[in-house]
Amino acid sequence: MESTSLILAGIIIFAGSVVQGAIGFALGMIAVPLLVEAGFSLSQAVALSSLSIGIQVIFGAWKLRAHIPWSDVKLAAVVRYLTLPIGIGLLLSIENLNVADVKRLVGLGLLLAVAIRALAQDLAQRELPLAASIAAFGISGVLQGLIAMGGPPLVLWRTMRDFRAQQARAFTLMVFLLNAPVHILLLLILSRTMSADVLLIAVIITPLIYLGTAIGVRIGDRFSKPLLNRVALALLALIALNAIF
Fold it and tell me: Distance between CA 50 and CA 20 in Å, rounded?
């Protein structure tokens, strides 16, 4: 493991943890394009981001365990278990593209995720048909396996449910937590470019993940959520455009 790779990964994951701590999503959306830019392969970036998300959500899920809507979490987790391998299969099939093409792919995925998240802000809360929920969770699983950006479909879905704020956060955190071990295991088994060293990076930078999360939560408590969302989406759009062009 090169010290430069460790330092770059630490900085990127720390920044993503701050944003996710503040607004409840976006660690993978920030980390994957920047890790690819820093020289990691796409599967390495996805695996490192997914493990970092798993480490981070342990903190939040434990604190919000009394507010977890288990019936919704179970459905989302099962559907994502079924569709996650599809995304990983797509990831491995496009991993041999040249670096520029990989960056463009990640950038386009990020722009799509940003657009979905922006559209979700003004949707009314209501009960959804089961088919719509399954579709949202399925897309989330594919995107999580492909580019570690499974959050936006979940956020879109939860904005249309009558969740309290703590329930909404607990739902997303728990779904990520349940799927992360399977995601990492599949990448370790199937990806030729994955190694234990990549996962060791996430373990080493765990203090940075915790610190970034704590800072982000404090920021989120002190500023309005709409303002933070707008700033985060603008930042993500800039990252995506940089990756594409």
Answer: 13
In angstroms, rounded to a whole number, what is the distance separating the alpha carbons of residues 142 and 93? Answer: 14
d(CA 52, CA 34): 14
Task: Give, for 10, the enclosing helix (H) or strand (E).
Answer: helix 3-23
CB 77 within 8 A of CB 138: no
- Give the rounded distance of the alpha carbon of 212 from its chain centre: 15
CB 51 within 8 A of CB 64: no
Dist CA 35 CA 193 (whole Å)? 14
pTM for this predicted structure: 0.80
Q: 69-100 pLDDT, tens per residue?
A: 999 999 999 999 999 999 988 888 876 666 57
Q: 93: closest CA among 45, 42, 29?
A: 42
Dihedral of CA atoms 27, 157, 236, 142 in degrees, nearest 10, equals 70
**Domain boundaries, given as residue ranges, for the chain:** 3-244
Q: How many CB atoms lie within 10 A of CB 50?
A: 29
Which amino acid, one-letter code, is at 41?
S
> Kind and range of the H or E element at 173?
helix 165-190
* DSSP class of 38: T
Q: Convert the pLDDT of each residue in 98-151 to its tens digit.
A: 657 767 877 888 788 778 777 766 555 556 789 989 999 999 999 888 888 788
CA distances from 43 to 83, 121, 142 (A): 17, 31, 14
